[in-house]
Amino acid sequence: MEEIAIVGAGVAGLTAARSLARQGFAPVVFEKSLSLSGRAASRRRGDVTFDYGANFFRLDNPVIEKLIRHELPTTDLVEIPGDVWTFDASCRLTPGDPKQNAEAKYTYRNGISQLGRLLVQSSGVEVRQQTCISRFEQHGKRWTLVDGKGNDAGAFDRVVLTAPAPQSLEIIQASTMEASLKAGLASVLADSRYHRQFSFILGYQQALARSQPFHALLSTDSGCAVAWLSFEEDKPGHLPKGQGALVVQMSPAWSDQRIDGDRQALLESVTREVESLLGSDFRPPDWWDSQCWMMAHPAKGVDGDALKAGQAHGLYFAGDALHGRGRVPLAMQTGLAAAEAIKRSMESNQG
Fold first, then answer.
1. Cβ contacts of 62 within 8 Å, gap of 6 or more
2. What Rg value do the Cα atoms of the chain yield, rounded?
3. Helix axes 165-174, 179-189, angle to 10 degrees
4. Which of 17, 34, 35, 167 has the fewest CB atoms within 10 Å of its CB?
5. Which string of DSSP letters, residue by residue, matches 133-174?
6. Of 32, 1, 5, whose CA–CA distance to 315 is shortest?
7. What's the distance, Cα to Cα, between the start and end of the chain in Å?
8. pTM of the full predicted structure?
9. Tell me: the pLDDT tens digits for 129-141?
10. Do residues 51 and 247 lie in contact, with contact meaning Cβ atoms separated by under 8 Å?
11. How many CB atoms sit inside 10 A of residue 130's CB?
């Protein structure tokens, strides 16, 4: 049996791992952090759960819907009520796209990151957390993975690289491999760009009132300081009854200008911006938290077809850079595609 490594335990990598495991393989997933699901991230604060990266996912793709609804446990899968409204630079609120709002929104009772845990639990794949892969070494048709401390992390026949494109580029540039392959892959990955973005969570012992029945507000103007605002108490199981929390994602432009700023000082600016949106419905939070995403979502994707040049050498790619949009189901689709490409390649070799 061929040995397969997957670099990155985001939803793309874990979906690929699960698909391969169902085909009879035993892939090993390497993850630099202690968490699963990547930017589909959740955090707990006492008895409060909040999603501070991806806010929800939709099941408009039949393959992903089948996986989540019929192949993974659904006990904790919850639908989020309320529509996504929009606002412009003058903070005028208007109902959002009726077609998109007609599509259900989902997360998990224990947070959106539960998706990653379910993918692992349903497949039994091995995940080596806190193992940062820094480079590869090509030895014939095999790849040796080397971690950030210079340790040999194992040799594999095929490797699926799912880190954000800038991180994947760093790995490729540091690796030892055929010169033309390295140059070609690096050129493709170098074309990608990612947004940086602050997320602030504003918590309340007593939830804020809302003048309109929306779940979230989405900016239609890139000049707005706030890009997204949503009410976490709408998600069943996330907060005790009566409490509330706002997830406020600031715009990339706002975030870039303040990337090294003091969080306490930034909070004052964030609350002013939120007050301008919610007006009299707003009051200062009882507690707060924050996260700075250095690679929140793609600003510019990569040419996935050009990256397929690596497949002849046992290198595969997955992740949201291949779609150029930060969407959970799209990332999962790239993981499924990578697993399918490995399967086809092996069947071709056997034939």
1. none
2. 21
3. 160
4. 34
5. EEEEEEETTEEEEEETTS-EEEEESEEEE-S-HHHHHHHHHH
6. 5
7. 16
8. 0.96
9. 999 999 999 999 9
10. yes
11. 10
Residue type present at position 347: E
Range 226-252 average pLDDT: 98
Residues composing the chain: 351
The amino acid that residue 316 corresponds to is Y
Burial class (CB within 10 angstroms; exposed 0-12, middle 13-18, buried 19+) of 67: buried
- Residue span(s) of the chain under CATH 3.50.50.60 come to 4-45+116-191+301-350
When pLDDT is averaged across residues 33-54 and rounded to a whole number, the result is 97
Q: What angle do CA 138, 144, 146 make, to 5 degrees?
A: 115
* Residue 90, both tokens: 């003058």
Superfamily (CATH) of domain 4-45+116-191+301-350: FAD/NAD(P)-binding domain (3.50.50.60)
- Binned at pLDDT 50, 70 and 90, residue 222 comes out as confident
Q: Which class is domain 48-111+194-298?
A: alpha beta
Residue 276 burial by Cβ neighbours in a 10 Å radius (0-12, 13-18, 19+): middle
What are the angstrom distances between the C-alpha of 221 and each of 53, 72, 251? 20, 38, 10
pLDDT of res. 347: 85
- The set of residues, in sequence order, having a beta carbon less than 8 Å from that of 241 and lying 6+ positions away, is none
Domain with CATH 3.90.660.10 in the chain: 48-111+194-298
**Residue 349 pLDDT exceeds 90:** no
Q: How confident is the model at residue 350 (pLDDT cuts 50, 70, 90)?
A: confident
